[in-house]
Design a protein that fits this description.
By secondary structure, the protein is mainly β. The chain has strands at residues 19-20, 49-60, 65-74, 77-84, 92-96, 101-104, 117-123, 126-131, 142-144, 149-151, 163-167, 170-174, 179-183, 188-192, 197-204, 207-214, 230-236, 241-244, 260-268, 274-281, 294-300, 305-307, 321-322, 328-329, 334-336, 342-346, 361-371, 378-387, 393-403. A hairpin with a 5-residue loop joins strand 25 and strand 26. Residues 1-47 and 324-328 have low confidence and may be disordered.
Length: 405
């Protein structure tokens, strides 16, 4: 059961590094009595010690739904986007100007937008606002220059998935299949990737990563007539995209049906560390005594991809950022310290003015976190899910990380 190295004895997994759950910064906070977390509805975290960190509300939006992302350019220039829990969902654009949060009209450049929005940091003072779920053709994008919104003169020429930037003249976006689009300040160029990609990250100028899967090369010998897919990592060095070897994955015999491993996400943390996450799985339900799926957790050590030790139960979340103490931000309820402890972050509880009842079960779910540039504060955006008889709802929120004591 489990996985054995394919082709050679693999090196031991590296020790887990520090991680901390989502954070925030912003404006006035609402009341913050104790409340349960997503993974521990009764407020008691199995194996999780008390944390010196907690959450407080920075803003409660006045619609039911969620905030799907945000971008912080400065202490007085923070933006968030959200959507309602109704169809068709009108997108929402919120802005913090240093004094308070306000609902903003959508930029004229977007036209009659009836889609979920995404907001991307493109430069030190530049944001792009566009569709989160792009249709089958190119769409309009809006640009914030620190003062006003205007149309992006040359938006992506095709539907794009992930979009990341090192600066206004160095933007990468994933298109369909094995295609990446690159904006160099003058034009968009279409680049063929070595393998199909699911996600990308930009570490800096001439330094970008894409991850996905491959069906050729070492470790892909067929099982049941189908290739055994393996994780794929690709690096842009300013001249070309090159494949970079990753550890190989294979289940012990008897190998389950349609097995394969892939990388689904790649992260560049604030400290510059690069991580990639994925899954080693198969087609369940066809055989008895099925082995468990396995998480693929990799770290770039500057020369090669190495495996990270799986964190303790309940702390095996998705890293989002890294603070000055080398902590990875995970999900909204727990974080993993450098010495391997899984600690719990206590979320705030909605005030009764939101129509959340005293006996309601509430859980905080954060979609994205960002450090406010030039500060030690963190912002998180998402929603509080309120489960109560007859009137459940989601409350869009911005939260701030608070150090207690």
């Amino acid at each position: 059961m489990g996985r054995r190295p394919a082709g050679a004895v693999r090196r031991g997994a590296v020790a887990a590094v520090a991680a901390v759950a989502l954070g925030a910064a912003g404006c006035t906070a609402g009341p913050r009595p104790d409340s349960p977390s997503p993974s521990a509805p009764d407020g008691k975290a199995s194996g999780a010690a008390a944390s010196p960190l907690s959450w407080e509300f920075a803003h409660l939006a006045d619609f039911h739904g969620t905030l799907t992302g945000f971008a912080a350019l400065a202490e007085d220039d923070v933006w968030a986007v959200g959507s309602e829990n109704v169809l068709p969902s009108d997108p929402h654009l919120l802005h913090f100007d240093g004094t308070g949060w306000k609902d903003e009209a959508l930029p004229d450049a977007l036209g009659e937008a009836k889609f979920r929005l995404r907001i991307e940091v493109i430069g030190e003072r530049e944001l792009w606002l566009g569709p989160a779920d792009q249709a089958d053709e190119a769409a309009s994008w809006a640009r914030w220059d620190g003062t006003r919104w205007s149309a992006v003169p040359n938006p992506p020429p095709a539907p794009v998935g992930d979009l990341e930037a090192a600066g206004p003249d160095d933007v990468w976006a994933l298109s369909e299949g094995q295609t990446a689009l690159h904006w160099n300040g003058a034009r968009w160029n279409s680049v063929r990737l070595p393998y199909p990609a699911a996600d990308l990250a930009v570490a800096g100028p001439d330094d970008a990563w894409a991850v996905g899967h491959r069906g050729t090369g070492p470790g892909t010998e067929p099982e049941g007539g189908l290739p055994y897919t393996q994780p794929a990592a690709m690096h842009w060095d300013g001249a070309t995209w090159r494949p970079v070897a990753t550890p190989l994955y294979r289940f012990d015999d008897p190998v389950p049906p349609e097995p394969g491993a892939s990388l689904d996400q790649v992260f560049v943390l604030d400290g510059g560390e690069i991580l990639a996450h994925g899954r080693h799985s198969y087609n369940h339900g066809e055989v008895e005594n099925e082995p468990p799926d396995e998480a693929v957790r990799l770290r770039w050590d500057g020369e090669k991809w190495v495996e990270r030790q799986t964190p303790p139960d309940r702390c095996d979340g998705i890293p989002a950022a890294q603070d000055g103490e080398g902590l990875f931000l995970l999900n909204g309820s727990r974080y993993l310290t450098g010495d391997g402890r899984c600690l719990k972050l206590r979320p705030p509880r909605l005030p009764l003015s939101t129509n959340a009842r005293e006996d309601s079960r509430q859980s905080l779910w954060l979609e994205e976190i960002r450090r406010v540039p030039g500060t030690d504060e963190w912002l998180g955006a998402g929603h509080v899910q309120v489960n109560q008889s007859g009137d459940p709802f989601g409350a869009p929120v911005v939260v701030r990380l608070k150090h207690r004591g």
